[in-house]
Amino acid sequence: MIDTKPSFGRWLKERRKALDLTQFALAERVGCAEVTIGRIEADERRPSRQVAELLAEALGIPPEDRPAFVQFARTGHTGEAAAPLMPTSATPPAVAAAVPPLAAPPVRAMAAPLTRLIGRDQTLAAVREALHRTGGRLLTLTGPPGVGKTRLAMQVAADMGGEFAGGVCFVPLAPISDPDYVPTAVAQALGLQDTGAAPLPARVLTYLRDKALLLVLDNFEHLLGAAPLLVEWLAASPRLTVLVTSRAALRVRGEQQFAVPPLALPDPAHLPPLSELARYPAVTLFVERAAGVQADFALTEENAAAVAGICARLDGLPLAIELAAARSKLLTPAAMLARLAARLPLLAGGPRDLPARQQTLRAAIGWSYDLLDAGEQALFARMSVFVNGCTLDAVEAVCNGTGDLPFDALDGVSSLFDKSLLRQDEPSEAEPRFNILDTIREFALEALAARGEVETIRRRHFAHYLAEAEQADPLLQGAEQTAWLERLEADHDNFRAALAWARDSGDAEALARLAGALWRFWYVHSHFHEGRGWLAQALARQDAVSPPVRVRLLNGTAWLAYNQGDFARARALAGQSLALARSLDNKWEIGQAMATLGSVELGQGNFDAATGHYEQGLAVMRALAHSWGISYMLNFLGLTAQLAGDSARATALLEESLALSRHLHDIRGMAFTLLNLGRAAHEQGDDARAAALLEESLELSAELGNKEYVATCLSYLALLARLRAEYRHAVLLYRESLHLLLELGHRESLAVGLEGLAGAVQGEGHPEHAVRLLAAAAALRDAIGAPLPPAQRPYYEQTLAEVRAQLAPLAYAAAWAEGSTLSLSGVVALATAYAP
Fold it and tell me: Are 214 and 138 within 8 A, CB to CB?
């Protein structure tokens, strides 16, 4: 017959197993020997009153029911006359009250999030995979303030809770200020009470030892001294998994780090269609949270650009986006975007049920800043002067210029990186670069101002980048040019900041030195508009600039003006540069001015004058024995001969130039010469060789990052396609070239491209559109004083004759009138209107 009256010992055994405890673990909780628990469960002995009371606490018996429990343990019954203990499923009400069943471990239940997690599917999958990975029992979610580490950890715990027999324990650590109290916080979350029977850390360790538990420790960054304790727990508890959120890495054995990224963002400068834009997580989050405070809020064509701009300004940080969206009841997206020039004051007023440090972004960042030591705070504040990243060398020079920091640049940057206040750019073969998210940088700038160091650090910043620009300038002419161009491009925002400091501080010499050192970079990387703008600001104060600096400034400005078809301005400035260079007996700048003046004459079809300037420049470079200068003068002379129709002389000069460029490993020189050789080969009737030369030039130009050369190569490849009657391919190549030229504002080359596109469009059977393109090109040439070169005249006249033959005089005249009166924006529309 089955026994339906189990003893206390049998009940205790079932109860212990329901709690997922071993005899050893229960003995540790009670403070007795493991053998004692074994004998009680075997009904070989009764517990003493003290042990029974400790068992009641360890087993989670409510205080009001403990007297009945102690009597049951001591006597085998609960006080009811002849009422033996029944199995759990048949326990009488009085006994059930005394010994309630436990179906789950006594751990803190997490509150269900009130909002859905947006845009984190891939991140969630990656975190889960990391936790499943062999040995992945300690995972730290790191990231900057406001990136959403806590919310992500809560979702991971909710998704994975069923995989852990012991459940999930979520421990909020933000209220704790001392690492020594981490065991106390964990014990409270686990439901353990400090009875004094054993030290609390030991009791936590005993509890965890045999548990298949996911322990989530939230906000650990200020308690890093307790990190070794986690290693101890994991070593003693083979089924324990610990998920930590922290702005700083723990840096202990066995730790895996997972950097939580910001939400994916659209590029505000190239917005996708509305339906695609709405799928970007940052945009989705803003729209959903904005709708929470303004029920009719929606993403529309009218507000799409502003919403995308807001998300980009806020670096895709979920907290920042949510705080901004909460303002939607008062501000339109456009008004909000305008106010985000200063982000932190706007990003306040978060939900009152959040911790104070999450109600404003300033408080969230301030929490991290306050955890830094004095040296780290100084470095963090000083690094705010950098814009869009910097190298370690720059950090050392600018932030530790007097050696007052207690560490070197690498150690300091590593520390801030580990604390999620810095980010590292995508790895490359170049020197590593580090940057601060703009939202965090604003706080750092305030900290720099509070330290009274703004002027000192900005001056150091300027000095560092001036030295870099002046070091790079001569090296843009040889084998190292590609590496230096990439470095200068990476630091372009820092150069902009340095130029602005020089301008705003009224230091005309400093502004002119930096702008003059950068003009060649601006030219090669096709930053024509911006370069001319800075150079013009420097020229406006040239009376306060020393002559050696002024001569470079004048010629650089002249060269960029020439490249945008501003021939009158270029001639005037180059003439001033030449006169000043002669007065200084500066042979190099004399040769540079001759090259600029020759190019201006070439652009206006004055081939003899151009040749005269280039030959004088060549004589100067030969006297200096400057191989790079000789190569370029030969190249210009070859180009002049080619445009004048003397392809044989052009080829000889260009071949000599190319040999020098190859010897110097000068990529820009090779690209330019190959381009000109390709044009000369075409003029000589060798289109196969022309195509090969142009393709090689195109590849080198793309590697160099020179949009002007790329556009010109595409234009001439389009011409070859057009002459082979491949009109559709030619149209596509011309249009790609024209897009680049419109961006650069290179009006002479733009005219050439429009004329070529007209021929391709005519070949496709659209004469009226071809006439409009020809008229627009003619208007451009008239505006800048650039006549059609003889080498290009046959193609132009062929197209003109074909459209005249196909159109009635009135139709031709109407189309020409329409094209000749177009603005530059109208030319843009015209160039893209015809789609093959």
Answer: no
CA distance 72 to 138: 43
Task: Report the range out of 531-535, 645-649, 739-743, 827-831 with the highest average pLDDT.
Answer: 531-535
| Cα(548)–Cα(556) distance, integer angstroms | 13
Element (H, E) at 82: none
Q: Which of 46, 34, 41 is nearest to 72 (CA)?
A: 46
The C-alpha R_g of the chain, in whole angstroms, comes to 38
The whole-number average pLDDT for the span 797-808 is: 92
In Å, the largest CA–CA distance within the chain is 127
The string of DSSP codes covering 386-409 is -SS-EEHHHHHHHHSTTS-SSS-H
The CA–CA distances, whole Å, from 657 to 476, 698, 748, 766 equal 17, 18, 24, 41
Tell me the average pLDDT across 813-829: 85
- 792 by DSSP, 3-state: which? helix
Q: Are 781 and 751 spatial neighbours (Cβ–Cβ below 8 Å)?
A: yes
CA distance 778 to 629: 34
State the CB neighbour count (10 A cutoff) for residue 91: 18
Beta strands in 202-331 (DSSP E): 214-218, 241-245, 255-259
CA distance 522 to 529: 9
As a whole number of angstroms, the distance between CA 242 and CA 213 comes to 8
Task: Name the band, by pLDDT with cuts 50, 70 and 90, for residue 197.
Answer: low
CA distance 556 to 592: 9
Contact 481, 525 (CB under 8 A): no
Segments in 31-92 forming alpha helices (H): 34-41, 49-58, 66-75
Q: How far apart are the first and last CA of the chain?
A: 94
State the amino acid at position 339 in one-letter form: R
Which of 645, 722, 652 has the alpha carbon at shortest distance from 687?
Answer: 722
Question: What letter represents residue 483's amino acid?
Answer: A
What's the mean pLDDT in 559-582?
A: 93
pLDDT at 236 over 50: yes
Q: pLDDT value at position 626?
A: 94
Tokens 């406006």 sit at which residue? 540
822's torsion region: left (phi>0), alpha (psi -120 to 50) or beta?
A: beta
Q: What is the pLDDT of residues 64-115, one digit of tens each?
A: 778 888 888 887 765 543 333 333 333 333 333 444 333 333 444 455 565 6
Condensed to tens digits (0 to 9), the pLDDT of residues 409-426 reads 899 999 998 888 888 876
Buried b (16+ CB within 10 A) or exposed e, 100-132: eeeeebebbebeeeeeebbbbeebeeebeebbe
Q: Count of CB atoms within 10 A of residue 43's CB? A: 15
- Residue 434, helix vs strand vs coil: strand
Closest CA to 135 of 229, 226, 235: 235
784: phi then psi, degrees, rounded to nearest 5: -105, 0
Cα 543-585-541 angle, rounded to 5 deg? 10
Choose from 47-51, 138-142, 147-151, 421-425 the range with maximum mean pLDDT. Answer: 138-142
Residue 360, token pair as written in the block: 């404003």
Phi, psi dihedral angles at 144 (to 5 degrees) = -70, 165
Percent of the chain surpassing pLDDT 70: 90
For residues 580 and 551, the answer to whether their CB atoms sit within 8 Å is: yes
Residue 430 tokens read as 């170049």
State the Cα–Cα distance between residues 565 and 745, nearest whole angstrom: 8
Averaged pLDDT of the chain: 85
DSSP, residue by residue, 165-213: TT-EEEEE-TT---GGGHHHHHHHHHT----SSS-HHHHHHHHHTT---
> Tokens 């940080």 map to which residue?
317
- Predicted confidence at residue 575, as pLDDT, reads 96
Taking CA atoms, 525 is separated from 410, 492, 706, in Å, by 31, 11, 5
Which of 710, 712, 654 lies closest to 680 in space, CA to CA?
654
CB 141 within 8 A of CB 149: yes
